[in-house]
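Quick one:
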Amino acid sequence: MKIKHIVLASAILVSVSSFAQKDELKSLKKIYAKDEIKGNDLAEYKALVAKVEPMATEEGDKVYAAFYKCVTPILDIKALGQTATPTQIAQIVNLKTIGDLVKGLNATLDYEKKTGKKVYTDNINETIVVFKPQIVNFAVILGNAKKYSEAGEVLYDAYLLDKRDQDNLFYAASYAVNAMDYDKALDYYGQLKTLNYSGEGTIFWAVNKASQQEETFNTKNERDLYLKSGTHEKPRDEKKESKRGEIYKNIALILVQKGKVDEAKAAIAEARKENPTDTSLILTEADLYLKVNDIATYTKLINEALAQNPNNADLIYNLGVISANANKLDDAEKYYKKALEINPNYFNANLNLAELKLRSDEKWVTEMNKLGTTEKDNKRYEVLKGLRNENFKAALPYLEKAVEVDSTNEAANKTLLSVYRALEMTDKAKALKAKME
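Output:
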């Protein structure tokens, strides 16, 4: 009989503990649901989180205990009120709090999907909409501070929070490359490859009349609603080009760096097989074979790309870039000029063609600086000066066109100013300098 009483007592104790736990979960739910967190709310919430976590025994209770714990930073921010400063928020938001938040929210979504009981699913989806832009912005801040590894981690968390937004995975991979964390970059690029991510699409822009700032919208219909309401104006569309070439190029470059050239070739070949008409992949494969000095295959691929798109200015310009990087300057000049025949206002082609011509200047300047003051040296000096001036004159129209197309580009303006001064075109130099100030 004593044994039975002991068992019964234990059952009562467990039952009491369970009821207490349910009460605490209810109290947490009540505080979490408040629009404003003030007074003793935050302190009480944190005390309840600390108390309920070790008490949770059932799967559901464990999930919700973890949920309430992971969203604590959200309540911290809400408690700051409308006057919260970026500095205050930055003290709350960090790699750990973001990682814990993503893990906790996803675990709750998975559990509610499994049980079919939507307690917080809608609320979590709303939370994702509100906080995902802030998480992405935090990653950008880290990236601007050259904390590339941390920025990549945060963007990967943003992707895990909303896997529909695959752009965040792509940029997480880019940050991993910048951080020289090549294993992580390969992992991310591998996921993008599995997803068959291209990044193609359209960005829908419109100007906010109140702030006079351009803002983006998820769809054209969403933007149209704001335009019709009168809050926005000046709509424009921006096409996003395929990023497949960049993804496979980076995979290949990382593999080459690791000494895995055959794997790099196989990765590009696989991509080409799945996307045979993607010219960015043809260029990527050509670039790879150029790097391993297989000129025959490189030339074959270049001709294949041109056959597919003989009048594609972007493609021809890219061929110019690849040729210039390989020090094939005659080929580069040919491709840049061909791109300009198709599109005379191609800013980068104009600027790069001018840069190509100005490369010769260094050798002339070096020789001029070594000359003495003899009659022979003076004659040679004049010859070199004439060659420099002719070269400047050859580059000048491309520089002037580049500045005409984009008058805000600092590099183009500075280079043009230097050429004006070298050619002693004083009036034009003064006018350009005035515009730059």
